[in-house]
Amino acid sequence: MHGARTPIKAVVDTNLFISGMILKRGRPFALLEAWRARWFILLIGDQQRDELAAVLQRAKLRERYDLPPEDVALLLRLVDAAAVRVPLSRRLPVSVRDAKDEMILASALGGQAGYLVTGDSDLLILRNNPHLGDLKIVTVAEFLAVLATMRPPQR
Predict the structure, then answer these.
(1) E strand or H helix that includes residue 84
(2) How many CA atoms lie within 13 A of 127 on its CB side?
(3) pLDDT tens digits along 63-120
(4) Does domain 9-150 have CATH number 3.40.50.1010?
(5) pLDDT (tens digit, 9 = 90+) per residue, 50-73?
(6) Average pLDDT, the chain
(7) What is the DSSP letter of 132?
(8) pLDDT tens, 14-40?
(9) Nearest-CA neighbor of 109 among 83, 136, 128?
(10) In sequence order, what are the residues at sequence separation of 6 or more whose Cβ sits closer than 8 angstroms to the Cβ of residue 131?
């Protein structure tokens, strides 16, 4: 368990950002709100930052989900200002079923994250792999439960 002096560092899979932006409710949204409240330190690699911007700026996505361009711009500015940019791990100690997920795992390992938060089964299947050291690969629900034990009760 992390003490009050040890901030939690996490990489959040891109699809969770997208879900949180689109739905404005539910666990992915709660995850974004927890990050905005600085309950954890978001780690992000340059490739993931570029992917996030590219996906969020797709006109088709913005129109389908009524996602205002100013909301997208605000999130990207916040990522640029508050997330910690990390190098990608040069070599992954495990193979990933989907090559698109390699950059997410490489960011978590390169940034020495405590957690990789994802809903992707191609990454979740790697949880508890001894080759990943102390990295915990968790779902949003599991990560929110960890955060709930760390922050002071709200009143």
Answers:
(1) strand 84-85
(2) 14
(3) 899 899 999 999 999 999 999 999 999 899 999 999 999 999 999 999 999 999 999 9
(4) yes
(5) 999 999 999 999 889 989 999 999
(6) 92
(7) G
(8) 999 999 999 989 999 999 999 999 999
(9) 136
(10) 93, 94
Q: Where are the alpha helices (DSSP H) in 68-119?
A: 69-82, 102-110
The residues spanned by each domain of the chain are 9-150
Question: What is the rounded distance in angstroms from the CA atom of residue 24 to the CA atom of residue 67?
Answer: 10
Give the Cα-Cα-Cα angle 7, 12, 14 (nearest 5 degrees): 160
What does the block give as tokens for 3? 């003490």
Pair of tokens at residue 141: 């629900």
CB-based contact 14:105 (threshold 8 Å):
no
Q: Which two tokens stand for residue 18?
A: 């997208």
* CB within 8 Å of 43: residues ≥ 6 apart: 9, 10, 11, 83, 84, 86, 107, 108, 111, 113
Alpha carbons 89 and 4: distance in angstroms, whole number: 28
In single-letter form, the type of residue at position 59 comes to: A
d(CA 118, CA 142) in angstroms, rounded, equals 10
- Tokens of residue 122, six digits: 């191609």
| Integer Cα distance of 63 and 61 in angstroms | 5
